[in-house]
TrEMBL record:
InterPro entries hit by this protein: Ac/AlaTfrase_AlgI/DltB (IPR024194), AlgI (IPR028362), MB_O-acyltransferase (IPR051085), MBOAT_fam (IPR004299)
Record's bilayer topology term: Multi-pass membrane protein
TM spans (from-to): 45-63, 79-98, 118-139, 202-223, 229-249, 356-375, 439-466
GO MF annotation terms: acyltransferase activity
Enzyme Commission no: 2.3.-.-
Organism, scientific name: Coprococcus aceti
Subcellular location: Cell membrane
Predominant location category: membrane
Protein name: MBOAT family O-acyltransferase
Family to which the UniProt record says this protein belongs: Belongs to the membrane-bound acyltransferase family.
Lineage: Bacteria, Bacillati, Bacillota, Clostridia, Lachnospirales
């Protein structure tokens, strides 16, 4: 079940909100837990045991760490922390990476004869990292251990964010689990944020995906039949898709959390407006970047060390960042690719590029980075990278590409605008001007009231029929 499905919108989420507000406040956490477990089990009931088991392990070791600190056990806090990390990372390695490593060993040495096909449990990367951050924070004495198992299970399984993030720190919601108040403004802002995220996914991201898949079909032969300009437009569409898709899920998660009193941190800050690769990674998937910073980079020494150790620390972080995204060589190359540019900016580029040149440079780096990210087949990746420079394609452009481009040009422009903060700045301007201008004030209020409804209606229409295109009237 995904957030952008009709069954989620009209059955699951609706039932969840009705049940949540129908019961007394002291029972609402249990309602959330039940719905979260049902949501997770929907994608594979057997893996619900893995989620519950990992949560149990972290719950027990966090309590042991606290007891060791108080002198109630003979073991040290570090012993229990290491045990938890071994189990948690071991489970992640088995389910996510065992097949990848065995496949590469077989390719080199011919053994084992068969590589086991292990299905990847939904959301395992997200809830594993959340539970690790919880236990480490208990070890650091930054949060108190949760004494009630079911409440920690609620934290790890909360359906708002356990599938696609953001990675929510326990300290962010620790107090909200037991003490949270919900105002009418919370419900409205949550609904507004969710509806905008849904529209971003159902209309913009899905349409960008359709353009990218059309221009960048699977298979080396099909890619070679594409034109150079077609590859560029296809990759630009994919670049828009991956941001709009991923940020849409974060928007919906933040919105759903807000509706029931949870305030999750922002996960994206208009990353395509970045002025450097470093700045891009301060804006993109903020919860993941901060996790690696706080739990890997800084413990290794950060940048307060020799140049050699700094490069080592960065290499470890970016190797892990690549691996976290998937068990395939292209993700490792993607991490190394960004490592190279971050080191280049650190030791050479610095602020040498002007404001315009720096933005162009950053967008090009991001575009080629997403090219590496998209193609798990190294042959397909090589074909596209060569094709973007005019090597091995069917020419620069053709009539078919022209038809696709003209048909979608206004949509692509709108998608580009949606990746900027223009809407946010216009809303802020309307609020300020509305304080002194009654007309602007009234128009703004009407717009605010109809925005969630309008976004939901358009999104549902887009989801009901794949052929429906809300931008039809803006096309030639």
């Amino acid at each position: 079940m995904v957030f952008s499905s009709l069954i989620f919108l009209f059955v699951f989420l609706t039932a969840n909100l009705i049940a949540y507000f129908a019961v007394s406040p002291e029972k609402r956490n249990k309602v959330l837990l039940i719905f979260s477990l049902v949501f997770y089990a929907w994608g594979g009931p057997r893996y619900l045991l893995l989620l519950a088991g990992e949560t149990l392990v972290s719950w027990l070791f966090a309590i042991r760490i606290d007891e060791a600190r108080a002198g109630y056990t003979k073991r040290s806090e570090k012993f229990y922390l290491v045990c938890d990390l071994v189990i948690m990372l071991g489970c992640l390695a088995i389910f996510k990476y065992l097949g990848f490593f065995l496949g590469n060993i077989k390719a080199v040495f011919g053994v084992p004869k068969t590589v086991p096909g292990i299905a990847l449990p939904i959301g395992i990367s997200f809830y594993t990292f959340q539970l690790i951050s919880y236990v480490v924070d208990v070890y650091r004495n930054e949060v108190r251990p949760q004494r009630e198992y079911w409440k920690l299970l609620l934290y790890s399984s909360l359906f708002h964010q356990c599938i696609a993030g953001p990675i929510v720190r326990y300290e962010t919601v620790a107090d909200q689990i037991d003490n949270r108040e919900i105002t009418a403004n919370d419900i409205y802002m949550g609904l507004r944020r969710f509806s905008v995220g849904l529209a971003k996914k159902a209309i913009l991201a899905n349409s960008c995906a359709s353009i990218a898949d059309t221009l960048l079909p699977a298979g080396v032969a099909s890619l070679k039949a594409q034109t150079t300009l077609g590859m560029w437009i296809g990759m630009i569409a994919y670049m828009l898709q991956i941001y709009l898709d991923f940020s849409a899920y974060s928007d919906m998660a933040i919105g759903m959390g807000r509706m029931v009193g949870f305030h999750y941190d922002e996960n994206f800050n208009y990353p395509y407006m970045a002025t450097s690769v470093n700045n891009f990674w301060r804006r993109w998937h903020i919860s993941l970047s901060s996790f690696f910073r706080d739990y890997v980079y800084i413990p290794l020494g950060g940048n307060r060390c020799s140049t050699a150790k700094y490069i080592r620390n960065m290499a470890i972080v970016w190797f892990l960042t690549g691996m976290w995204h998937g068990a395939s060589w292209n993700y490792i190359f993607w991490g190394v690719y960004y490592l190279g540019f971050l080191l280049l900016e650190k030791f050479y580029l610095g602020g040498r590029l002007g404001p315009v040149a720096s933005r162009i440079y950053t967008l090009l780096v991001i575009l080629f980075g997403w090219t590496i990210f998209r193609f798990e087949s190294l042959r397909e990746l090589g074909t596209v990278l060569a094709g973007m420079f005019g090597i091995g394609t069917s020419g620069f452009a053709n009539m078919a590409l022209g038809t696709i481009f003209v048909k979608n040009i206004f949509f692509l422009i709108f998608a580009c605008i949606a990746c900027t903060d223009l809407g946010k700045r216009l809303r802020k301007w309307a609020i300020e001007v509305g304080k002194v201008n009654p007309l602007v004030f009234n128009v703004f209020n009407v717009t605010e009231m109809i925005t969630p409804v309008l976004m939901l209606v358009i999104s549902v229409l887009a989801l009901v029929g794949a052929s429906y295109n809300p931008f039809l009237y803006f096309q030639f």
